[in-house]
Amino acid sequence: MNVLVINCGSSSLKYQLINMNDESVLAKGLAERIGIEGSVVKHQAEGKEKVVIEEPMKSHKEAINIVLKSLVDPVYGAVKSLEEIDAVGHRVVHGGEKFAGSVKITDEVVNAMKECTDLAPLHNPPNIIGIEACKELLPNVPMVGTFDTAYHQTMPEVSYIYPLPYELYKELGIRRYGFHGTSHRYVAERAAALTGKDLKDLKIITCHLGNGASVTAIKGGKSVDTSMGLTPLEGLVMGTRCGDIDPAITTFLMNKKNMSAADLDNLMNKKSGVLGISGVSSDFRDIEEEAEKGNKRAQLALDKFDYTVKKYIGSYAAAMGGVDVVVFTAGLGENSKDNRKEICSGLEFLGITIDDEKNNTRGKEALISKDNGSVKVFVIPTNEELMIARDTQLLSK
Predict the structure, then answer these.
(1) Are the C-beta atoms of 327 and 187 separated by less than 8 Å?
(2) What is residue 119's predicted lDDT score, i.e. its pLDDT?
(3) What does the record list as coiled-coil region(s) (predicted)?
């Protein structure tokens, strides 16, 4: 059985075509900078050279069209026709309280996803576009949705409840949901395997750091707290999202700048974060390049990001009564040694220490903590696609 996994992020699209007989990857790729100048698809089929397709991608639908063409390309493709794709698994960010696990996609499920769009305005729309594009191009292929929110359903009430009138939770479902659950689950399981210990015996803090970013506290194999909230806007400073701010800023801006709710939503989701601070880009690579040239606002954006991650690690260590393992994953977490070092700097009192030589790594599993450190620090490339593929195979039978 071949499962195509589509993982639409806010400005990227990862994909893998997986042979579930042995979980081998027949092809994989990444469409980057969707809706941003310089968009590109990096595609590689098993046993073939990687190809880079530089082509404008104004939307996620255009990106999926390029991906499907790449998979069946006679030179660098992985299959002869789209008929060799037996099922498609989709990452979906927000399922609210409607979905506590993966489900087979039906029209009713898509409609329920759309009802959650207000809670994930940057993500659910491209997720749904990906589903509808695949349904159009692969009409007879079963599809499964895996939700970022599902993993965090183990959070205790004290973690997910907001200090608002309780009736708002009961009436409107206003609570912390958390996101990147598939990624946090995968790297936590891998970290346990790498330490040789049972996941149930570990206190793990996983840091999913990319254009969208979150930190999760995992105790006894279960998510007990996470930085994102009702929507993916809360928590860390991100590419274009502000993360934690004083909520009174919203009414202040309404009064001072005559901003509407839609204006504020756009400001906080699409014009803030490291983009807002730096004035350069939402892409950390662009910001790092400008910081190296002496751009102080670019450096401030990087410093602010690292500082907020550091604070969450410290707070989650306190919440769990300690920490055994810290994991860095996703684009920035896997590839930026400078960010990892800066985030861990000052956390030595928790037993978190970084070995500079070990930390000089990109995009592969590595233990980067010092040998005498009481906390093991790992870089573990996430594999949300494999987790989604397993659920897709199970539900497509």
Answers:
(1) yes
(2) 80
(3) none
Distance of alpha carbon 341 from alpha carbon 314, whole angstroms: 15
Q: Is the pLDDT of residue 11 over 90?
A: no
Give me the active site residues, please.
Answer: 148
How far is residue 44 CA from its own chain's centroid? 22
- Per-residue pLDDT at 98: 83
pLDDT tier, 250 (very low <50, low <70, confident <90, very high otherwise): very high
Binding-site annotation, residues for ATP? 14, 208-212, 283-285, 331-335
Query: What tens digit of pLDDT does each residue of 299-334 get?
Result: 999 999 999 999 999 999 999 999 999 999 999 999
In the sheet that holds 51-54, the strands lie side by side as 51-54, 40-45, 24-32, 13-19, 2-8, 87-92, 143-147, 103-104
d(CA 8, CA 364): 22
Q: Which two tokens stand for residue 46?
A: 């098993």
* Short-list 117, 104, 155, 143, CA closest to 5: 143
pLDDT of residue 130: 87
d(CA 125, CA 121) in angstroms, rounded, equals 7
Whole-number average pLDDT of the chain: 94
Which strands make up the sheet holding 203-209, listed edge to edge? Answer: 222-226, 213-219, 203-209, 325-329, 376-379, 366-367
- Tens-digit pLDDT profile for residues 150-174: 899 999 999 999 999 999 999 988 9
Q: Are 217 and 318 in contact (CB under 8 A)?
A: no
- Quote the CA–CA distance of 282 and 33 in Å, as a whole number: 10
How many other CB atoms sit within 10 Å of the CB of residue 293?
A: 8
pTM of the entire predicted model: 0.84
Which residue bears the tokens 């659920």? 391
pLDDT confidence of residue 59:
84
Q: Where are the alpha helices (DSSP H) in 138-260?
A: 157-160, 166-172, 181-195, 248-257
Dist. CA 226–CA 217, nearest whole Å: 6
Q: Which residues fall in the annotated binding site?
A: 7, 14, 91, 208-212, 283-285, 331-335, 384
Are 310 and 187 in contact by the 8 Å Cβ rule? The answer is no
Three-state SS for 264? helix
